[in-house]
Amino acid sequence: MEAALEFIPGGTVTSAKGFSAGGTCAGIKKSPKNALDLGIIYSKAPCITAGMFTKNNMKSAHVLLCQKRLPSNAIRALVVNSGCANAGTGKQGINNALSMASSTAERLGIAAEEVLVASTGIIGKQLPIDSMVSAIKTIEVSPDGGHTLARAILTTDTVTKEAAIRAEGFTIGAIAKGSGMVHPDMGTLLCFLTTDANIEMDFCTRSLGQAVDISFNMVSIDGDNSPNDTALLMANGLSGKEVITGKSSQASLFQQALNEICIYIARAIASDGEGAGKLIEATVSSAASIADARAAARAITSSSLVKAAIHGNDPNWGRIVAAAGRSGAEMIEAKIDLNIGGICLLKDGCQLAYDRDKVVRLLKDSPVAIELNLNLGEAKATAWGCDLSPEYVTINSEYTT
Amino acid sequence: MEAALEFIPGGTVTSAKGFSAGGTCAGIKKSPKNALDLGIIYSKAPCITAGMFTKNNMKSAHVLLCQKRLPSNAIRALVVNSGCANAGTGKQGINNALSMASSTAERLGIAAEEVLVASTGIIGKQLPIDSMVSAIKTIEVSPDGGHTLARAILTTDTVTKEAAIRAEGFTIGAIAKGSGMVHPDMGTLLCFLTTDANIEMDFCTRSLGQAVDISFNMVSIDGDNSPNDTALLMANGLSGKEVITGKSSQASLFQQALNEICIYIARAIASDGEGAGKLIEATVSSAASIADARAAARAITSSSLVKAAIHGNDPNWGRIVAAAGRSGAEMIEAKIDLNIGGICLLKDGCQLAYDRDKVVRLLKDSPVAIELNLNLGEAKATAWGCDLSPEYVTINSEYTT
Question: Is residue B177 within 8 Å of residue B162, measured between CB atoms?
């Protein structure tokens, strides 16, 4: 099955059949000058569309709007901006989100109800809706516009997050933005997935849920989630193949492809966390339950003390075990094995005589692999995060100023 | 009632009748040279003693030992070291903790079972027990030795945390250490409370639980708790007054005194968080339930983004509301009021035209008071934390190296 999937070099959200995209500068971002901050994804055919959203009780206007419209079998477009979150903006925020949708619909010659909306950026400010409406009128979408849109959705990200994966019969493309305020549950601020696969609506919802659970929900940058976190899967069926349901022979191939592209993007988000120098990949195995494995893995990648130690190339294994201990996962100290970068530091809960200099050297390279074996059961989970650097604090002290 | 309580200037853990303490250098801490790192609290009379301990599934040897011995009506002493946590140390760790107790008992001429043990410092290293046993033999305890012990228990703390509070009929003294790995539940690494009040065992346990709940469990430095977190209340009854039970007329006065000293110490710990420049005091009021109020207040003081914004004197109110939203507390955006430093920024969920420069100026001073009114119910809770600075990361990148 593995061989049937391949990542497309230079792939992006417009790699699947029938999708086009474009972006422009609406002046929402103050710097750099003329930065892209607004864009559109457009599908030639209506899309079966599912979404996963933040669990934060403060929800941005776009999340409220999308939750109302999804799941749907009639989505044609998405309009998205960066630089302003349109969260904490009350009724005016909702009206602005509706204006974004209707302007986009007018531009594309479709109905306003066929358009989804997304925003990311500073919380608590109103969108400069007039200049955005004017800017939307000028956006040109094209089949290779995914790269432009990938740039338009970034905030403090340093690189775009784009990928596409191809299998016999369908392609899935994706773009995302991450960086700050990234934490389970909904470990990404924004991820847009598009596919030409012909999938049925129930399967669309369930497969997105499963993929998000093992990818974005296992990413932590700083322990905060945001009012805006959103993952969307738009499927336009233009592959022309038979419809895929949960029972189809193609179902597991589609799920595998979706999982792989989501994990690829999740790793890219963690690698590019604010101020991050390296990716941390923590795998907890032989846990008593999958909930325990997930909780322990996420606690390790979320711990400020673990993240700071890894920033300093410090094999401070006690902090890793303490973080797992704090997660609530069942744990018997005398059974634990711990590897860092493939080197065993703890066996049956006892520290081994390991080559400290070698581990310090390994910690200098990204990714840093942490493997904690609880030796209690059969469950396993992987979480991703990044080191904590003084730059993270600097970036986040100065964000609105 | 308020007037009946007063803090004793220069008060400490030996301020109550019959308690003495002392400390020495056992060479556990590597720097500075000759740093105090070992000490004893001794009571002339056996103490009714209760303890509250970390909820981390990784528990230090001393926590396991104390949990076995408490509650008790026959505790006479406590031996405590800094520089090494004696956690992640297996059987040898337990044996070393027992050796600490028996050496202390021998030194004081009491039974080993009458001695409690506590440790703080680096996880995963064995105690240098031989030099500790030798050092214990030299410790002199005295009625003003609390100040020495307060220094001996510090790790990355920059100042001692000491206080004593006096009421008609009894005195309560305390020392504590905090700084890193401080998070609910059990927001302090170590806090030792002593009193000459004549309290009954059940009331001792319950009153400590109540005080810890609204003080140490509401403090967060970095979101990590430790395998060592411990609060102990030792009551030797030497006030000679009538026994206080939950039903006594004195019960509420004692509870109030215990609450006040614990909150005083909790604030001191938060103010001295690693790399901290200022204390953050977040009060959530009119919440639907006390659980909601507590969760929202703690989420605000735990948020890396809020903490970094406050470090940068940035009135980024969106992060405060988003943190509360993430806590799971019931919240209706259109009902929220938010004050920073007494200035109202949000009313009924809408941003007011506030004097931004004035708020920036207020944010430069410690403490920073955040008041979030949910306008849903009657519950109220306060949490304490500190700003997040680049120094925090530097300190925690270099801790074991």
Answer: no
Put simply, the answer to whether B57 touches A331 (Cβ < 8 Å) is yes
What is the model's pTM?
0.84
Query: Residue B176's closest CA among B216, B226, B227?
Result: B216
**A&B contacts, CB < 8 Å:** 206
Whole-number Å distance between alpha carbons of A250 and A388? 41
By C-alpha distance, the chain A residue nearest B274 is A305
Among B305, B333, B351, whose Cβ lies nearest the Cβ of A181? B305
Q: State the average pLDDT over residues B23-37.
A: 90
Q: Is the Cβ–Cβ distance between A138 and A39 less than 8 Å?
A: no
pLDDT at B260 over 80: yes
Predicted confidence band of residue B179 (pLDDT cuts 50, 70, 90): low
Structure tokens at B71: 């509650």
Residue numbers in B near A392 (CB within 8 A): 304, 308, 393
User: B57–A351: do the CB atoms touch at under 8 Å?
Assistant: no
List pLDDT tens digits, range B305-341.
Answer: 898 889 999 888 988 998 999 899 999 999 999 999 9
Sole residue written with tokens 């703390």: B157
Other CB atoms within 10 Å distance of the CB of residue A176: 28
- Reported as a pLDDT band with limits 50, 70 and 90, residue B393 is confident
What are the catalytic residues of B? 188
B215 contacts B263 by C-beta, under 8 angstroms: yes
Q: Is A234 helix (H, G, I), strand (E, B) or coil?
A: strand
**Do B50 and B70 contact (CB within 8 A), yes or no?**
yes
pLDDT tens digits along A183-196: 544 444 799 999 99
Sorted by where each starts, the structural domains of chain B and their CATH numbers stand as 2-271 (3.60.70.12), 279-397 (3.10.20.340)
**Nearest-by-Cβ selection for B58 from A55, A181, A321:** A321
Mean pLDDT lowest for which of B61-65, B355-359, B395-399? B395-399
Res B258 pLDDT > 60: yes
* Model confidence pLDDT, tens digit, residues B186-206: 444 799 999 999 999 999 999
Would strands B115-122 and A38-53 be described as parallel, antiparallel, or unpaired? Answer: unpaired
Q: Where are the beta strands (DSSP E) in B299-393?
A: 337-340, 343-347, 350-351, 368-373, 379-386
Tell me the chain B residues in contact with residue A321 when contact means C-beta distances shorter than 8 Å: 58, 88, 123-124
Record the tokens describing residue A392, joined without a space.
């993270």
Scanning A183-242 for CB atoms below 8 A from B yields 222-227
